[in-house]
Design brief:
This protein is α+β, with helices and mostly antiparallel strands and about 290 residues long. The protein is built from five helices and 20 strands. Bound molecules: 2-acetamido-2-deoxy-beta-D-glucopyranose (2 copies).
């Protein structure tokens, strides 16, 4: 019995302290999670010191945007269909994903020593992730940096992502461990990125990803094949040598032609061609243009 009495006394004491310190909210501000189309109850119980009554307001805060839900003793227009006050709590019925926001209760008691108190709730309307889209390059050179991206935007709370290569899940490795474990990728599970730096030929394969949050797991995105090819040094050397040789031969040929005086003849041939292009277009050409215009 004694502990119970002590407990009750301490409760009384707590309330006395509250009363001495002006308006005080006694509800606790925890995050509220509800399934879509269910009911969310946000409690804002308070005690007053001297004041007989207090002004109560509920606001919705989404990023920069702040709007009233309960103001001047009534639920505002937009919410009248589905919000009610139960004492000092606000009850939102049939919540949708658009209701995910912060809701703040503000209590003002003019006659109290401390006249203002507030409490905020983060309301998360739970939505399972949609099928993500995955961006996978179809080919890349080994040694380059390649980033694969997985993304969906319905999941609430926000999804985390899992990547698979050839049907095997890619495990998390920190950047520090990645060299030690001879793994050439870094995963950011909240951003959905899979980064190869540098990418190797052995990273060629079939990739897909999945999104999940505490509500559920998505379908996987469609499989994509990524082909990593080595830079073929031999081929490049051969190409460079060939081009050099061709240029060299052309140069030599030109010099030879110069000396023999062929170039002069060619120039006169060229000027002949120029005068020919100045003549009006042949009938056939004309027909061509006409049909094009039509
Ligand atoms: C790392 O892996 C690559 C390809 O899988 C391999 O060629 C290389 O020898 C490995 N290096 C070490 C230190 O294990
Ligand atoms: C993962 O991506 C998010 C969002 O782009 C970023 O804020 C976070 O710092 C990244 N985490 C790591 C470990 O790189």
């Amino acid at each position: 019995m004694a502990p119970l009495v002590a407990f009750l006394l301490s409760l009384n004491l707590l309330e006395l302290i509250h009363r001495a310190s002006g308006v005080t909210i006694i509800s606790s501000d925890k995050d509220v999670e509800v399934n879509e189309f269910d009911t969310a109850t946000l409690p804002c119980d308070y005690v007053l010191e001297r004041a007989r009554d207090a002004r109560l307001e509920w606001k919705r805060i989404a990023g920069e945007h702040i709007s009233f839900v309960y103001f001047d003793g009534r639920i505002v227009e937009n919410y009248r269909e589905r919000a009610t006050m139960q004492g000092q709590s606000i009850v939102l019925q049939r919540v949708t994903r658009a209701d995910t926001a912060t809701y703040r209760c503000e209590v003002t008691a003019k006659q109290d020593s401390k006249i203002f108190a507030e409490i905020s709730f983060k309301l998360v309307v739970l939505v399972p992730p949609a099928t993500p889209t995955c961006k996978v390059p179809s080919s890349a050179m080994s040694g380059s940096t390649v980033e694969l991206v997985c993304k969906e935007s319905e999941g609430s709370p926000p999804s985390v992502y899992t990547w698979y290569k050839d049907n095997v899940v890619l495990m998390d490795v920190s950047a520090k461990d990645s060299t030690a474990n001879n793994v050439s990728y870094t995963l950011n599970r909240s951003a959905g990125t899979l980064r190869f730096n540098p990418v190797r030929k052995s990273n060629s394969g079939t990739y897909y990803c999945e999104a999940h949050n505490k509500v559920g797991r998505s379908e996987r995105c469609s499989l994509k094949f990524m082909q990593i090819s080595d830079l073929d040094v031999t081929a490049i050397v051969i190409a460079v040598v060939t081009i050099t040789l061709v240029l060299l031969l052309c140069g030599l040929g030109l010099c030879y032609a110069c000396r023999r005086g062929y170039l002069g003849k060619r120039r006169s041939a060229k000027s002949n061609a120029a005068t020919r292009t100045n003549t009006p277009p042949a009938a056939e050409d004309f027909k061509h243009t006409k049909s094009f215009v039509i």
